[in-house]
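User: Show me an example of a complex going from sequences to structure tokens.

Assistant: Sure. Here are the input components:
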Amino acid sequence: MIKAGIIGSTGYAGAELVRLLLQHPEAEIVWYGSKSYVDQKYADVYRNMFELVDEKCMNDNMDELSERADVIFTATPQGLCASLINERILERSKVIDLSADFRLKRVGVYEEWYHRTHEAPEYLPEAVYGLCEINRESIAAARIIANPGCYTTTSILTLYPLVKEGLIDPDTIIIDAKSGTSGAGRGTKLPNLYCEVNESIKPYGVATHRHTPEIEEQLSYAAGMDYMSGDSIKVNFTPHLVPMNRGILATCYASLRDGADAGAVGEAYSKYYKEEYFIRLLGEGSFPETRWVEGSNFVDIGYTVDTRTGRVIAAGALDNLVKGAAGQAVQNMNISFGLPENTGLKLVPVFP
Amino acid sequence: MIKAGIIGSTGYAGAELVRLLLQHPEAEIVWYGSKSYVDQKYADVYRNMFELVDEKCMNDNMDELSERADVIFTATPQGLCASLINERILERSKVIDLSADFRLKRVGVYEEWYHRTHEAPEYLPEAVYGLCEINRESIAAARIIANPGCYTTTSILTLYPLVKEGLIDPDTIIIDAKSGTSGAGRGTKLPNLYCEVNESIKPYGVATHRHTPEIEEQLSYAAGMDYMSGDSIKVNFTPHLVPMNRGILATCYASLRDGADAGAVGEAYSKYYKEEYFIRLLGEGSFPETRWVEGSNFVDIGYTVDTRTGRVIAAGALDNLVKGAAGQAVQNMNISFGLPENTGLKLVPVFP
Amino acid sequence: MIKAGIIGSTGYAGAELVRLLLQHPEAEIVWYGSKSYVDQKYADVYRNMFELVDEKCMNDNMDELSERADVIFTATPQGLCASLINERILERSKVIDLSADFRLKRVGVYEEWYHRTHEAPEYLPEAVYGLCEINRESIAAARIIANPGCYTTTSILTLYPLVKEGLIDPDTIIIDAKSGTSGAGRGTKLPNLYCEVNESIKPYGVATHRHTPEIEEQLSYAAGMDYMSGDSIKVNFTPHLVPMNRGILATCYASLRDGADAGAVGEAYSKYYKEEYFIRLLGEGSFPETRWVEGSNFVDIGYTVDTRTGRVIAAGALDNLVKGAAGQAVQNMNISFGLPENTGLKLVPVFP
Amino acid sequence: MIKAGIIGSTGYAGAELVRLLLQHPEAEIVWYGSKSYVDQKYADVYRNMFELVDEKCMNDNMDELSERADVIFTATPQGLCASLINERILERSKVIDLSADFRLKRVGVYEEWYHRTHEAPEYLPEAVYGLCEINRESIAAARIIANPGCYTTTSILTLYPLVKEGLIDPDTIIIDAKSGTSGAGRGTKLPNLYCEVNESIKPYGVATHRHTPEIEEQLSYAAGMDYMSGDSIKVNFTPHLVPMNRGILATCYASLRDGADAGAVGEAYSKYYKEEYFIRLLGEGSFPETRWVEGSNFVDIGYTVDTRTGRVIAAGALDNLVKGAAGQAVQNMNISFGLPENTGLKLVPVFP
């Protein structure tokens, strides 16, 4: 059994980790970290866990935790993981960080978009971006896995084959994304109140959202650009808040390069994803809906080519708390520990 | 492996059966029955099943089905199961009927509340009311299991210990129940439209809802009344439609008998449910919320005693599609086939 | 033009007062009070008011406000109005208090249920309970109008004719109420977050909710009891939180007295409400739904008599922010200033 | 008083017309047309109208209606208005058609996108596209006003100043739009059911939605193109279904032309909309949310310029049933009859 510790287990992503790990046949949770609820019963914070979890919440002492755990998940705000990580911890435990601390290779980009100093830039080179379907092999060998963001997982997986195969002009990429409200976290802020979110849709972080550079970096690699030297694709990424609990949909637009057509697009998706358990290709003209993936680790992808405008419109949908956070983290754990990738993750989507 | 067939697999309860059985380690689905979608791919009707279910929908030929299946689930409108059932089928397969056809022992009561003639009254005596926690032993031996209604499971389980122990005056029982919209089924009727349900709550079937006699019959047994001779508790049961997908909450009121107090109420719940895996007793003053059981087979129960009025207010919550329908059906199957009762049903509630 | 000042204009009830008064032909708002947002533009707090309200938020200086306003609405937490009110203010302005400070005539009852000392008990005798349809005449003459609570308006109006006419046994009254989430206010508390409220229903404040004594007091008057001497009806009142923005539904149960039947119930409703503009009698067997009153000042009432149990089940529905708060406050203002009662309140319900 | 008749008064747009006209000081409804509900009381179909509307539903005899009405609103499926209209009707009544029959000047484009033959192409030349802020003067003189679609009103108003002033490259326009579910109408179709829409978001009609040519035509005029000869802007327009009742948000992307910057964009909006009562300019960096316009005839518009990509991102929000349908229809009526444009339309947005 893999011993797993969670720092930040009372946020929505942390709680989803708890749900998934409780149902994982090869893992057990040994540490329910939550600075805000130390010494309170976990099941009093999340009553769905009543009679399923007896433990109390622990602090975020990552050092002590590393003595007990084979893997540490940090489902915490930006900066925490980078401030705590050290060599001793990494000698004992794998670290899967759900924050952005180790997602961006260029520290300057991190500091520009996150408005904070990076406290452990020395670990950036070895950290592996944990987008399982793309980086599977490096993940297996990594000590630090930077679990991708929810918007980014959706966006990158939707666009990756098209960029990789050179079918689209990367300068024309526009990603219009929509997320359920659990993505905003469990913080008690006015904009998260029921009556403020319900019966409304809004864009936010337009042209400034922090998932932008993460998408740009990964797509730049796919395009074969020398990202570390400063070359980069630039995209427009616009997130929207949708009145629903879970789900992300990324509607992506790009101009096709000369000669690229619907057939080529379909082949590109097949080439990279046909064998992927968690990626379901809906085919041309069939588009994903978030309801069909809720509660599961699937990503559904569909597309169409508009010959009138010469653009491909492709869309991906996933559950932001599963494939967009905790599910992918568990998938990374599986890879890291040599388990079949879908161990504990064969969750059938819950509908309605 | 238990071979399971489902008639009515494209209704919401049928689809939930599919979800649960796909994740059941000892069962496999051999028949996706759906008269409306014969020969269409099941995954085209429920796209959450894309790449998970390859089969096409079949008709409702229960005879043929019984040759292939060890157990037949009928998740169909009232009357269908009674019209098809026969000795040959029962010799080959267990039948778990999710409709009301075999729930009420007195055929006259059925015909009065359901406004239809019962087509197989000869099977009423042997059919067992499949409320697992109460009738476990008879279920194990039954050929026909009448899977309880969603409202009734919630209401009966909430009130059973109080009636059984004689703590409340059964003539004072009032059940005010609230259900998510999946309980209304997948029929394309005006009142089920999004804009008609959303942002509203309404009572319906006031004093006439068909789950009333089902509750009355079972509680009459608990009270030791001679129900078959016409003695019966009479309750007021008022269902309400709530703008959410899943979940039932039953808020129950009754006057305590002399001498009964909060302590006695707590003891009664403990006596009957302490060892039950699927019933979670929240204790005095702590009330259930449907979000904490969503996606799982749990029933959460809480209560308080109002000494000002001499009443107990007890409430139960469950997921109407799981413990209120498909989950309980699988639990019945488990009992029927001698499996541990929670096989394939240790589902952690999904939140948010 | 009536000059109106609002203290607490940035809560949901206060904001609804702004919406209604902006559309009122005989009133203008002269003070947008909001301690939390002093000096901020009101339209920055409520962007629906962009280009409709230019004013900034003011403090809660009721003394200064009374120099400018003919009527002061206090849409503030319990205690504030009682702590500020004085003779000088009352000489200049009418006060319509949307908090509970002046709703309960017996100070001991207030202090018991609200767990606070009343700071202005000397004004309790003259304050008039502003349930317009019942107390119209005293309201016209009052200096202090205690605007009723949302649950209480619904519950009392639904039960009043039955109690007044002696058709029901008041000891058997049970009120099971359901409210939209705006009733919980705009406070940034965890239970008010979108993901905590959405897809769930829960009871709360069971047997302890503060609207209970308010209902009991008014129904005791209707029953002709000597409430001030300690006689009182006792009811069970259970509120539930529903995932919707607006709306309250109160489902009420009571045993009919001997001789009372559906006809008598219908006549009682007609007798008291037939001429009321804001009360719409749906008739026997027809039940209200909150969607049909949203955005309006209407109360819809329906009922049925269950001859099996000898009970009447009656239900009332209203918009908690309109007839349950701001709308009734404006109706009280109209009465107070001798205007036709529905001036500025002929709002057609918004659906869907 | 303007006598108004409505054909199709029981659809959501028709019902909103009823709501608005009931509150209009200069209009009265003389005909509640609804083929499906002939002879049924209108208030039985829409119970929010209980005691507000006494009339029964009428058929769609437009000839007879024109004898009674000064203005006829057709809120009906495509084709009905074109099939009924004739010279006699137009001599007696103005016609404001909420369907697409008279929105597209080129009959071939209509027939291509709507897959039907146009039955009255002879009236296309005189029909005026009723986008009030743009075509005010021609509307005043028109006999047939083609009321714009909901998506199109949002999209065109958001982009018009930028195209008109030549600030953007029209070949780069991408419109990603999101709509509440009332836009799907009151038809009893599976995809409109509560449980199918709730907790999900989906794109639909990708690259094929019928509002596309309507947007292209109007923006082509703005760009000074010879649309009738076949010149046309081509846009990508992708609608999405959002789990909410009302509201449309259109997020629009386009590349700025050389020299165009945020200042120029702001000036363009000011130039065309500063004096418009119903258009509220939020300014640079401030984006609209549908909740702030709900129930009103406002369009809120905001934008930002992303200098990294050289694109402007602009978004517009409105209530699809008001400014997107019935409200704009009434605004057209006001223009047509020489009333101040906002007569009966100074509706304060309802929040929450």
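The lines above are the inputs; the final block is the predicted structure for all four components together. The longest strand of chain A covers residues 248-255.
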